[in-house]
Specification:
32% of the residues lie in helices and 17% in strands. It contains 14 helices and 19 strands. The structure holds flavin-adenine dinucleotide. The site of flavin-adenine dinucleotide (FAD) has 43 residues, from helix 1, helix 5, strand 7 and helix 11.
Length: 567
């Protein structure tokens, strides 16, 4: 018997959980999440959420900063929407119980602040003075944060609020495999839910829903080095693509320049603040190298530093470079970077005495499933929110701290758009999951081998610096791996590892296709064969099953009057 619900939410990060909380006022919500409910990229977010709250800040300034980062591909309506809705979304999080840092003169007990910013007051009279950080790319202080573990606090608050809500049911260790599109069974072109693997029981259940919401996050695991959680395997993008949805701008993957390189430390970020305080990037023989790349040296923008490190590693064959802060007073280092000091010590690295081995790491997927301003995808019945969606906000490069914001704003928009779901129609008759001739796997080594191969080839050929030749090599190898994965998929019972491998292979294919079709260097896409921006290519790269990646319509300069669509 299928499970039924009004809203099926796939994923329990900031996007999925904030949608669930709002939608629960209108119907029954089922959240499926492939590990425990608090495991997500959201949990690891450090910096915070961008919102215009300070007296000297303005929506125009936040819009402008976002457009500068996006290198000509932002959809201005999406930018405008996110920026204007940010203060209200911060209030929603606080109402859900999130505690953010307050400016020194305020405490959580002091609810009436005399120095409230006019914007905060206008957006929400209950808003009190929050401590606002400044981050690279933002021209004003506007980062709402909870120490340097903002994501952990947001996830805690949202999970607690969801646990207390009787209209929301969460199934941990349940992984969505594929969307159920009725066209596949001779019906209309509409999605009716998803097949979901109960990971612990090894059984596939059918979930029927009036609306299916993809909130499955990013895809950092497609690269060998990533800051992302293990859950970030691009499942939502892969599922939507297989079901025939339009996907866009997959070539724009943001890399963080410095992630700890250590066999046991998979995802630890070494904050840019270290370079801000004078840490020097060195080759393995100790020579500093940033002056050869940019006059701003270690303080050059994120993508330039990441590219320089990548170039050094490719040139020398080294597996990492070094980040050195040993010339600073040890007490200063320990006081300013207690978290980094403690984490590195766990791996036997005393950063006051020895340089830190670092590599750049895949951090954020700017592209994803194409949506309009209400989160609708091109498949009726499917919405996409958060990092798996391409809303047009980020363009060709993401401005720091805009992504948690985007997740909430589009979750809110989708919940509003879905306030009334059609409940009168009978549930469609769809077949249960068919195991066919499949048997239990006796060759799991195929999965580990292909995971490693795929992630390494993406790192080497489709990473920070690309070329047409490297992309062609990658495309050939990915096609071969996909053949092997497909054979395995049909012959053996599905497992989470196999499904994730199948999904990262699809995401890899999409990144390569989009990168190969973009014949310019723009934002996060840098290719040795086309070093400049091409003004004629100021368009999204769109791709759909059966339709090769191609440039879409021009990105609208002005809001599209009378239309809800972002493009
Ligand atoms: C180290 C780090 C630091 C960051 N710092 C910041 C920051 O300071 N500010 C900022 O704005 N952004 C930051 N980001 C980016 C930001 O955290 C993410 O973009 C954002 O949290 C994504 O939210 P989401 O809800 O879309 O996805 P996630 O939070 O990743 O949640 C995805 C959920 O989907 C589930 N899932 C995935 N596939 C399936 C499936 N097939 N079936 C069922 N469940 C599935 C996962 O288990 C997870 O619960 C950072 C990211 C990282 C990794």
């Amino acid at each position: 018997m299928p499970l039924t619900c009004d809203y099926l939410v796939i994923g329990s990060g900031i996007a999925g959980l904030s949608f669930a909380l709002e939608a629960a006022t209108n119907g029954e919500v089922l959240v499926v999440t492939k590990r425990s409910r608090d495991e997500s990229n959201t949990k690891y977010a450090q910096g915070g959420i961008a919102a215009v709250l300070a007296e000297d800040d303005s929506f125009e300034s936040h819009v402008q900063d976002t457009l500068v980062a996006g290198a000509g591909l932002n959809h201005k309506r999406a930018v405008d929407l996110c920026v204007r809705e940010a203060p209200g979304r911060i209030t929603m999080l606080r109402d859900a119980g999130a505690k953010f840092d307050l400016a020194p003169t305020h405490s959580h007990a002091d609810e009436s602040s005399p120095s409230l910013s006019s914007r905060a007051r206008a957006a929400n009279p209950a808003q009190q003075d929050l401590d606002l950080h400044l981050e690279g790319g933002h021209s004003k202080r506007r980062i709402v944060h909870a120490g340097d573990m903002t994501g952990r606090e947001i996830e805690r608050a949202l999970v607690e609020a969801v646990n207390a809500n009787r209209n929301i049911r969460v199934l941990d260790e349940h992984m969505a495999i594929d969307l159920i599109t009725l066209a596949k069974y001779g019906g209309p072109e509409v999605c009716a839910g998803a097949y979901v693997l109960d990971v612990e029981q090894g059984k596939v259940i059918t979930v029927l829903a009036r609306a299916t919401i993809l909130a499955s996050g990013g895809a950092g695991k497609v690269y060998l080095y990533t800051t992302n959680s293990d859950v970030a395997t691009g499942d939502g993008v892969a599922m939507a693509f297989r079901a025939g949805a339009e996907v866009a701008n997959m070539e724009f993957y943001q890399f963080h320049p410095t992630c700890l390189f250590h066999p046991q430390a998979k995802t630890f970020l070494i904050s840019e603040a270290l370079r801000g305080e004078g840490a020097i990037l060195r080759r393995l023989d100790g020579t500093p190298f940033m002056k050869e790349y940019d006059p701003r040296m270690e303080l050059a923008p994120r993508d330039i530093v990441a590219r320089a490190i990548d170039h050094e590693m490719k040139r020398s064959g080294a597996e990492h470079v070094l980040l050195d802060i040993t010339h600073k007073d040890a007490t200063f280092v320990k006081e300013h970077f207690p978290g980094i000091f403690a984490e590195c010590m766990r791996y036997g690295i005393d950063i006051t005495r020895e340089p830190i081995p670092v590599v750049p790491a895949a951090h954020y997927l700017c592209g994803g499933v194409t949506t309009d301003l209400g989160g609708r995808t091109t498949i009726p019945g499917v919405w996409a929110i958060g990092e798996c969606a391409h809303t047009g906000l980020h363009g060709a490069n993401r401005l720091a701290s805009n992504s948690l914001l985007e997740g909430m704003v589009f979750a809110h928009g989708a919940a509003k758009a879905l306030a009334e779901v059609e409940r009168s129609k009978p549930w469609p008759d769809v077949p249960e999951w068919d195991v066919g001739e499949a048997v239990p796997s006796d060759e799991a080594v195929v999965i580990t081998q292909n995971w490693d191969e795929l992630r390494r080839l993406m790192w080497n050929y489709v990473g920070i610096v690309r070329s047409s030749r490297r992309l062609r090599r990658a495309a050939r190898r990915i096609a071969l791996l996909q053949e092997e994965i497909a054979e395995y998929y049909w012959n053996y019972f599905v497992t989470r590892d196999l499904l994730e491998l199948r999904n990262i292979a699809t995401v890899a294919q999409l990144i390569v296709e989009c990168a190969a079709a973009r014949r310019e260097s723009r934002g996060l896409h840098f290719t040795l064969d086309y070093l400049e921006i091409d003004s004629k290519s100021a368009r999204d790269m769109v791709v759909k099953r059966g339709v090769p990646a191609h440039l879409g319509l021009p990105v609208p300069e002005k809001p599209v009057v009378g239309s809800e669509r972002a493009r």
